[in-house]
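Final report, Chapter 2: Outcomes

The project's central promise was a pipeline that accepts a single protein chain and returns its three-dimensional structure in a standardized token representation, suitable for archiving and comparison. That pipeline is now operational. To close this chapter, we reproduce one record exactly as it appears in the project archive, with the input sequence first and the structure output second.
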Amino acid sequence: MEQTISEALINSVMAKDAFVKEGRQHLIDLACQMVITLRQQGKILIFGNGGSAADAQHMAAEFVNRFLLNRRPLAAISLSTDTSTITAIGNDFSFDEIFSKQVQALGKPEDLALGISTSGASRNVIKAIEVAKDIGMRTAVLTGGLSGGSSELGTLADFTLNVPSAKTQHIQEVHLWIEHLLCELVEEEMFGDN
């Protein structure tokens, strides 16, 4: 058990370090785009499956309520939380369309679509990003894996933040860290003087 804990810590730190070496500027660029989106009265639509669905919900809550600063609510919606909509679409059409149909219903050109896929291969996330691009929205993805940045999803989005790790749990840990950093950077930029 001691060895497992030590190895998990080392691998988690290595995954963060690898992301920062490759993705620091992409992170800053996405934070700046989020600020532009929110200042122009746009909203951020966030979505993913499984643990990434939980991340989408968590991140939307940080924007709507607050992260570190007491400030006005920021427009963000998790598309992973409406079970009636998700199950209706999955039942009547396909699980591949559970996010794309919501993006069609809710997305506007001034909005930003943020898809989260540890593998970079989730069909429903890919379809939603494609629909968002058709609407004229800016698009961003959090991916993972040694080829995640060059995956179909990674090459499709305007902003790709890839965690270059082969271990799913460490990709997910870094995704949460990235999501918190995005919240913090956006708050600092928009409300840091308050």
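Archive annotation: DSSP finds seven helices and five strands in the chain.
This record, like all others produced under the grant, will remain available to the consortium after the project formally closes.
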